[in-house]
Design brief:
The structure holds two protein chains of two kinds. Chain A is of the alpha/beta class. Chain A is built from 19 helices and 14 strands. In chain A, the strands form three sheets. Chain A has a six-stranded mixed β-sheet, with helices on both faces. The chains are: A alpha/beta, B mainly alpha.
Chain lengths: ~500, ~350
């Protein structure tokens, strides 16, 4: 089913445009105001939330939970609508509520400031200056809302497929033009995007259920669904609440199964091919155990933009096969049986070892991969390896590096290969030598302190100005050097006994 | 001046290492401080107050260098905020060192050497940390009844409404703060760091409660600040001859290990419990120092109703009180760390339903 999301500013005639477009296409029209009404019915303090976002100093943990509650509700309503019918939604960057859904047509409707000021002057009977200040305030409040909600600047034009300026084109003509655009193959639902939408719906429904129960409403747990399976990741402090969570989620009929994993953090493991017979699994599991992390598997089938997005000759061309190649897909559907089986086997091992954090397959260009990663998940590390297998060795290495850099920049966390993982995060013989050497130097320093106790006191308490300067400089050099030496020894020792 | 430094026996050295372990665990667990235990602990071992403070601030310098680098990698350091606070923090340290050094030189008898400085340091310690622990405990109890576990924003809310010109925007912390409020907090943080070696106990809560910035950024920025304040404090005290490098090394032996254990504790203990345990540990440290105050008053001949023969007893009680608070706190943390390990081993880890 088609989804068109319109982001509108105040007095930009976005509402009129959205309603006109929905009527022309014969789609359902859903507004942000309807979502807010539903939220109020569920006793979510929407007004307080708006104020808290505009004035962050009154923002509290309780309100942060209410914000998550509202997010889950809005996502659930949008997903439900989009799964049952075609929908035009108008509000503030509603498409960001649906991460990983590739077929959304994302529009931003703007209008020139002068037109907006005149509109405010007429509607609110305000003089020009006050009308301008009012608009600036409203725009600023909306910018803050989007920033708090998604940590994104809503004026960033790359968030939208098209920006419609209604200053020169009338609403009716603009809507007619968009009707043609809506027929483009890029904006049609694919089995992959429908699956992703179902998973998102399942996730938001599970969140809503937990929010609606007093016992589970304030729990710090992560929920995500993949292919109808619900993955719940909870920190060790919440272990006692698992039975209650299970009881609350029992009424969720759409979930094929629910997998619970106790973890403090998440590690995302991305590969094109997972091999069940190498040592990579052992290395990743060892790290996950040390960090108390859940491991999420992501099978990536990389494609270049031009290979997967052919422009059809006619706008009414039926959906070609290639469209199915972009987005999040069921791994059994599109891939060879060998790779899929290996990924499943590794996943079974992760469940067995209590480290499963979900699995999915993404096929498409770099942007699709970035869009498919859940930004709210507490990822601590991304392992990115064994991809671009169709390329030559040098090209493979280069592509891996380029994509790694983009991932690290977008997610603000380290991205490593399996080899780097073993080197950086696991104990190696070289590190043992390092620890031993620094340990010996530390021990020698302590030995000298005892051996030359009186000389040190004499040196420190010298009243001669020149000697005072020398002793001060010695102290300022000694302290960081000793701290570095000994912190390296303790750090490596704790790494050796897996206490990190 | 050499007789100011404590004679280092093996037993005393081991006690200093133990002080380091407890201070390190508390520091890793609370995110700042640790010195509030180590400073009075060293004083109980016979170290002069001014040397205990000088040693502690020097110890903090190296520790902050290691911690600040790690926080910086995670993007938790607002350098602009740190630099603004440093402007007056240096002045605060200089004022603190000047007052302590002047009081140290005031004594007219050998027995009372450093007693005035000790008394001054102890009084500042008691007043300041009583306020911190009471605020912490009351805030947790109040939040508990209201069902909200976040820190109170009443002060930051009030100050942001005042908008004392000029207001400065800090991008990492994402807050706007009045320059005057900034400079005042910086001055006070520096003064507290210079006087009792626990600037973090003023800096971190001030950044959270007064500036309204996130806890992680407050802790990271404080470490950045502590690195420079520590270096400056170490320079000031070392030049005056009040830094015992032997004690610094011994403290490191315990604290750098303790920090890892304390940090692990924060992952497995609920935030409300972290705050309430911290509040009680500080309160016990305050009581311990309060018991030691009459010792300095007698040494300075300011009171005469306590016989001098009772002074060692008072010192012992104060010492045990301090150890009970530290060991008790560390015990709770270690209990939770071990319990978390045991839970980790249970088959409970993964349950699959609805297959």
């Amino acid at each position: 089913m088609q989804i068109i999301c319109i982001s509108r500013g105040s007095q930009s005639r976005g509402k009129e445009f959205a309603e006109n477009l929905a009527t022309k296409l014969g789609y359902d029209c859903l507004s942000r105001e309807q979502l807010l009404e539903e939220a109020s019915n569920r006793r979510i303090p929407v007004g307080k939330l708006e104020t808290a976002i505009i004035k962050p100093h009154i923002y509290s943990e309780k309100l942060a939970l209410e914000l998550e509650h509202y997010k889950a509700l809005a996502t659930s309503i949008l997903c439900e609508k989009a799964l049952n019918s075609n929908v035009v939604y108008h509000g503030r960057t509603g498409h960001l509520l649906l991460p990983g859904i590739t077929h959304i047509l994302k529009l931003r409707v703007v209008s020139e400031t002068e037109n907006r000021i005149e509109s405010v002057m007429t509607k609110l009977q305000l003089p020009r200056d006050k009308a301008r200040r009012y608009l600036e305030q409203v725009d600023d409040d909306r910018r803050k809302w989007v920033k708090t909600f998604y940590n994104i600047d809503w004026a960033e034009f790359t968030l939208y497929d098209l920006i419609v300026n209604l200053s020169h084109v009338n609403v009716n003509n603009a809507a007619s033009a968009i009707c043609s655009m809506a027929q483009l193959p890029e904006f049609q639902a694919t089995p992959a995007s429908i699956n992703a939408l179902r998973d998102l719906y399942l996730t938001s429904k599970a969140r809503l259920l937990l929010f609606s129960d007093r016992r589970t409403s304030s729990l710090n747990i992560k929920i995500k669904a993949n292919d109808g399976i619900l993955y719940i990741t909870y920190p060790v402090q919440q272990a006692e609440n698992i039975e209650v969570i299970n009881e609350v989620l029992k009424s969720l009929d759409d979930a094929k199964e629910i997998v619970y994993t106790k973890a403090q953090t998440n590690v995302l493991w991305i590969q094109e091919k997972f091999s069940a017979d190498d040592n990579s699994y052992k290395a990743v599991l060892s790290l996950a155990n040390t960090w108390d992390a859940a491991v999420e598997l992501l099978k990536l089938i990389p494609h270049k933009e031009q290979e997967i997005m052919p422009t059809p000759e006619k706008s009414d061309t039926p959906v070609p096969e290639t469209w199915r190649e972009t987005g999040i897909i069921d791994e059994d559907e599109e891939l060879g049986p060998e790779t899929s089986e290996d990924m499943s086997k590794i996943y079974e091992w992760l469940i067995r070892d209590g480290r499963a954090g979900g699995k999915k397959t993404v096929t498409g260009p770099q942007k699709t991969l970035l869009d498919s990663i859940d930004r709210s998940a507490n990822y601590r590390l991304i392992i990115f390896d064994n991809t671009f297998l169709s390329k030559q060795s040098a090209a493979r290495k280069r592509s891996l590096q380029e994509w790694s850099n983009s991932l690290a920049e977008a997610m603000k966390i380290p991205v490593v290969t399996v080899d780097e993982l073993q080197f950086k995060y696991q104990f190696k013989p070289k590190q043992f030598v390092h620890m031993f050497l620094f340990g010996v130097i530390t021990a020698l320093i302590i030995y000298f302190i005892f051996q030359f106790n009186s000389q040190i006191i004499e040196f420190l308490s010298n009243s001669d100005t020149k000697m005072r300067i020398i002793s001060t400089v010695c102290i300022l050099i000694f302290v960081p050097v000793f701290a570095h030496l000994y912190s390296t020894v303790t750090g490596l020792f704790l790494k050796l006994i897996k206490f990190e | 001046m050499g007789d100011l430094f404590v004679t280092l026996t093996l037993a005393k050295a081991l006690q200093v290492v133990l002080l380091g372990v407890i201070g390190g665990v508390l520091s890793g667990f609370i995110g700042s401080g640790g010195a509030f235990f180590m400073t009075p602990g060293m004083m109980n071992l016979g170290v002069q107050g001014i040397i205990a403070v000088g040693t502690n601030i020097t110890h903090k310098f190296g520790k902050a260098m290691v911690g600040s680098r790690k926080h910086g990698e995670l993007g938790h350091v607002d350098k602009k905020l740190g630099i603004f606070m440093l402007i007056t923090a240096f002045l605060g340290i200089r004022i603190a060192v000047w007052i302590s050094s002047s009081l140290f030189g005031m004594s007219d008898s050998h027995a009372a050497t450093g007693a005035a400085a000790n008394l001054y340091i102890s009084v500042v310690f008691v007043v300041m940390l009583s306020f911190v622990s009471a605020t912490m405990i009351l805030d947790v109890l109040r939040r508990r009844t209201e069902g909200d576990s976040g820190p109170s924003k009443r002060i930051s809310d009030y100050l942001s409404r005042l908008r004392l010109f000029p207001m400065i925007y800090f991008p990492v912390a994402d807050v706007e703060i009045s320059l005057w409020v900034l400079l005042t907090v910086g001055l006070f943080t520096g003064y507290m760091a210079g006087t009792i070696g626990v600037g973090g106990f003023v800096g971190v809560p001030a950044m959270i409660y007064i500036f309204g910035i996130p806890t992680a950024v407050a802790a990271g920025t404080e470490l950045f600040l502590a690195m420079f304040m520590g270096a400056f404090g170490a320079l000031s005290y070392a030049y005056e001859g009040f830094v015992d490098i032997r004690l610094v090394a011994l403290l490191y032996l315990g604290s750098l290990l303790g920090i890892y254990i304390g940090t692990y504790g924060t992952k497995v203990v609920k935030e409300q419990i972290i705050r309430i345990v911290t509040g009680f540990i500080i309160l016990l440290c305050v009581i311990s120092r309060l018991i030691a105050v009459p010792i300095y008053l007698v040494q300075l001949k300011m009171i005469d109703f306590i016989d001098e023969s009772y002074l060692p007893l008072l010192n012992t009680i104060s010492k045990y009180f301090l150890y009970i608070s530290g060991i008790g706190g560390v015990g709770i943390i270690l209990y939770n760390v071990v319990a978390a390990y045991i839970r980790k081993k249970r088959v409970y880890a993964t349950i699959i339903t609805k297959t």
